[in-house]
Amino acid sequence: MKSLKIGSEACKFDVEKDEWSKLINIAQTKKFEIEEQKMAQVIVVQTSNEKIYSYLFDYGNGLALEEEKHFLKVLKTNADTSVEKMVCLWSDGSVDFPSYSLREKMIETNLQNESTQILLNGYDGFIVKTIGKTMK
Predict the structure, then answer these.
(1) Which of 6, 75, 87, 105 has its CB surrounded by the most CB atoms within 10 Å?
(2) Which residues neighbour 115 within 8 Å (Cβ) at sequence distance 6 or greater?
(3) Helical residues (DSSP H) of 5-130, grouped into ranges
């Protein structure tokens, strides 16, 4: 069992075996692109077709809603709108929710996305919640 330091918290999970490790590694690789921005986030998703998409969102530039629309357009263009897993890494290193707006649009795009699992920093490691549970 290894600890992965994300932000100021040490989260424990098995890096080699954990089903989330690939998504986390992609998010960490892309994080350097947003480190200077205070309200930016890397979102990495895995779809039911086993494809992985990553996207950078800057919530401080006033264009985030357009960026969210573009992200969903990419999924629609690829006929790949059913998202199984999502990792959202903020520029400060925290693993947290994507915006409410994005979660809402994901469900509008595909009702199955209500069951999308989101990885979150928990008290003693990571926890997983579905988009549906976070919308109530």
Answers:
(1) 87
(2) 130, 131, 132
(3) 21-31, 64-77, 100-109
pTM of the model as a whole: 0.82
- Strand, coil or helix: 31: helix
Which stretch, 20-29, 48-57, 65-74, 104-113, has highest mean pLDDT? 104-113
- Residue 114: C-alpha distances to residues 37, 64, 81, 97, 118 (Å): 29, 21, 12, 14, 11
pLDDT digits (tens, 9 = 90+) for 73-109: 999 999 999 999 999 988 888 899 999 999 999 999 9
Do residues 115 and 81 make contact, with C-beta atoms less than 8 angstroms apart? no
- Buried (b) or exposed (e) across 69-88, using 16+ Cβ within 10 A? eebbeebeeeebbbbebbbb
